[in-house]
Amino acid sequence: MAWVYLVLAGLLEVGWAIGLKYTEGFTRPLPSLLTAVSIAGSMYLLAVAARTLPIGTAYAIWVGIGAVGTAVLGMVLFGEPRTVGRLLFLSLLVVSLVGLKLTASDPAP
After folding, report:
1. How far apart are the C-alpha atoms of 67 and 55, rounded to whole Å?
2. pTM over the 0.70 mark
3. Over 5-69, what HEC string results?
4. How far, in Å, CA of 86 to CA of 96, rounded?
């Protein structure tokens, strides 16, 4: 279940990172509120996942999901560049995240 919490935490991180753009410097109340709630939820779920998973693995995967998701949505929603190099390095990040998941050892009971 910790991995589910971690993935949800990463998705909420994407939500708050994208939400920052919509807050316009926290001058818009509703986007600011939604962004703050996403930040709190993301941190909470990361903390819950870290009860079971090694913190180094949990944090790296949390940040990685947030980075990849935010970069991809930046391209889709905001017309950010879609260069071959950018897509290549985002792909490498995804491979790294999968590698971390596959090599994560369960902590001793």
Report:
1. 18
2. yes
3. HHHHHHHHHHHHHHHHHHHCCCCCHHHHHHHHHHHHHHHHHHHHHHCCCCHHHHHHHHHHHHHHH
4. 15
| Enclosing H/E stretch for 74 | helix 55-78
DSSP state of 78: H
Residue 56 CB burial class (10 angstroms; 0-12, 13-18, ≥19): exposed
Residue type, 65: I
What are the structure tokens assigned to 52, written together?
Answer: 């079971």
Q: How confident is residue 104, by pLDDT bands cut at 50, 70 and 90?
A: confident
